[in-house]
Design goal:
- The N and C termini lie far apart (76 Å).
- 47% of the residues lie in helices and 19% in strands.
- The strands form four sheets. Strands 2-9-8-4-5 form a five-stranded mixed sheet. A five-stranded antiparallel sheet has the order 10-11-12-16-15, with no helix packed on it.
Length: 568
């Protein structure tokens, strides 16, 4: 066993390639550049290796021109620009996937000759259903992985029980793998439901880091199945420990937690954290079942002792043996769980330190708030486990029927809390950590009819009043105020535009301060294609940013109003 543990540590601490979320750091054209002639190619440079999932070039009439990306090293891509004589504004929309499996996108605008004016619209598709299915598939996948591997581990404590209850979780977990994979592809390429059968969607998913996670999950489930069906005790232990290690490596292969720097610390910490979580949460269901059999065996033993002394001694011996075989797993689990929880807590603290830059991130970011919710559930789980371990386990093993009943109920409560923890963990798919360069990037849900901006964007903290400030609608004024109408001061304001219906990634423009609460932002004239969406990022201070989403636009297809008509 000592050699095996040394081997495991060697695998966990081996050098890792540095992976993280990508960020665009340079382009060959500045946003808004006006050129006399079309460029031969456009170069995008990133801060780390990326894989391209989507490139679109849209001309001033809204037509999609043929475009593809050519890699130049690991961090640069070149997009050859097809010959096109049309003058006006072009949009280059790109979408890449970083090493942690998260899609990153943006849009670069430039003009040839002179910028063009803007026109009409259509309704963009909602991404809520797709995101909901991604969360559901991920949560069910984690649940099946924890249950199956937990059952395999528990069989090493009680070889006579094949853990048949875990078979539905095994089958469901394997069936979810292709579903999870294609949903990842749809998200990477921002494709509609027709993409379910598109080779490019499947190819993008298979090329992502998340495909490694799913592949290792398949191997973990198969190793767990082997552990639950093999005969020898040695083969069972090897298969069960293999499934546990593979499960830990699977969740460390992609995602935010495993991609933080330094990699030599982050990935082993994630792997150990997941392994200890499975050892604890995954073992709860078989532990409750084992305790139920222990109670049944004790009841049978008591009834046998109360019956006539003519009961064969062999039957009494069999009852005693059954009671011992069901009590031993509970006793061994109780002895090991303290060390597992300490490792779980230690690695959890390490990962929190790597992801959270400041203490205020815990309540000022979505990631931090979700982390606090998870920690609250973990504390509740610890309180339940502490009561079960120190107050009920010993009397339950001694044969107290009351203690056994209360312990079984307590374990089932732990199961419920464990499931809720997996719900929270699955939601991290949509909440980049504070240390990420893309933490401010979100869902662009504010809708407008082309560039007919809503007159105001607001929440409980701030109201932004928008109005055209130029005769052609290329400059907009933004006034910030509190809900009570008083001026609202901010450090920076950024206007974001996206067009999901056409697969156009977000285009951002920084506003310039005119006076304390008044800002001006210049926008490129956008081609007449699809329906555009608008959001406003208001940086209040170094620690607080507010994102304002626009309401659904009216059905009008008119161009942006002239300042004389819309007066503010």
């Amino acid at each position: 066993m000592k050699k095996f543990l040394l081997l495991v540590w060697g695998l966990l601490l081996c050098p890792q390639i540095v992976w993280g979320q990508a960020s665009l750091i340079a382009t060959s054209l500045s946003p808004g550049t006006v050129l006399a002639q079309p460029p031969a190619r456009i170069t995008l440079a990133f801060n780390e290796p990326v894989s391209v999932t989507l490139v679109q070039l849209i001309d001033p009439q809204g037509r999609k021109l043929p475009a593809h990306a050519v890699r130049d090293g690991a961090t640069e891509i070149h997009i050859p620009v097809p010959v096109d004589t049309t003058q006006g504004t072009y949009l280059l929309s790109w979408r890449v996937v970083s090493a942690d499996g998260q899609p990153v996108g943006g849009t670069l605008d430039y003009a040839v000759g002179a910028p063009n004016a803007q026109n009409s619209a259509t309704e963009p598709p909602s991404q809520g259903l797709r995101n909901g299915l991604i969360w559901l598939a991920r949560w069910l996948g984690y649940l099946c992985l924890f249950a199956t591997v937990g059952g395999a581990l528990f069989r090493t404590l009680n070889p006579t029980d094949r853990q048949g209850w875990a078979r539905p979780f095994l089958i469901t977990g394997l069936a979810l793998i292709p579903v999870d994979l294609v949903l990842q592809g749809l998200d990477l390429q921002d494709a509609g439901w027709a993409g379910l059968i598109a080779p490019s969607v499947w190819g993008a998913a298979l090329a992502s880091r998340y495909a490694w996670t799913l592949g290792l999950m398949v191997l973990a489930l198969l190793a767990a199945s082997r552990a639950m069906n093999t005969q020898g005790a040695g083969a069972t232990r090897i298969a069960a420990l293999t499934s546990l290690i593979l499960a830990g490596l699977a969740l460390a292969a992609s995602g935010h937690a495993g991609t933080a720097d330094p990699q030599w610390l982050a990935r082993p910490a994630v792997t150990l954290h997941v392994m200890m979580a499975i050892f604890w949460i995954g073992a709860l269901i078989p532990l409750a079942r084992s305790l139920n059999r222990h109670r049944t065996a004790h009841s049978a033993g008591g009834a046998s002792a109360a019956r006539s002394t003519s009961t064969p001694s062999g039957s009494r011996a069999q009852t005693s043996a059954a009671s011992l075989s069901t009590a031993e797993p509970l006793a061994r689990f109780s002895a090991w769980i303290v060390s597992a929880v300490l490792l779980l807590a230690g690695t959890g603290l390490v990962l929190t330190g790597l992801q959270v830059d400041r203490l205020s991130d815990l309540w000022q970011t979505d990631y931090g708030q979700l982390l606090l919710a998870k920690l609250a559930l973990v504390v509740l789980l610890l309180l339940l486990a502490t009561g079960n371990r120190w107050r009920l386990t010993r009397p339950a093993l001694a044969g107290s029927a009351v203690a056994q009943q209360r312990l079984q109920r307590g374990i089932w409560l732990e199961v419920v809390v464990g499931v809720l923890i997996l719900v929270a963990v699955s939601l991290w798919r949509f909440t980049p950590p504070p240390r990420s360069l893309d933490a401010a990037a979100g869902a662009y849900q504010g809708r407008m009819q082309h560039l007919n901006f809503p007159k105001s964007l607001e929440n409980s903290q701030v109201r932004a009043l928008l109005a055209p400030a130029g005769r052609h609608g290329n400059v907009w004024s933004i006034r910030l105020e509190t809900p009570a109408g008083k001026p609202f001061k901010a450090q920076a304001v950024t206007l974001n535009l996206s067009n999901p219906s056409e697969g156009i990634e977000p285009l951002s423009r920084q506003a310039n301060r005119r006076k304390d609460s008044d800002w001006l932002v210049g926008l490129p004239p956008l081609p007449d294609t699809g329906q555009w969406q608008v959001t406003l990022d208001v940086l209040v201070d170094d620690f607080d940013q507010i994102t304002l989403d626009g309401p659904p636009a009216a059905s009008s297809t008119a161009r942006m109003a002239d300042p004389v008509d819309s007066g503010h």
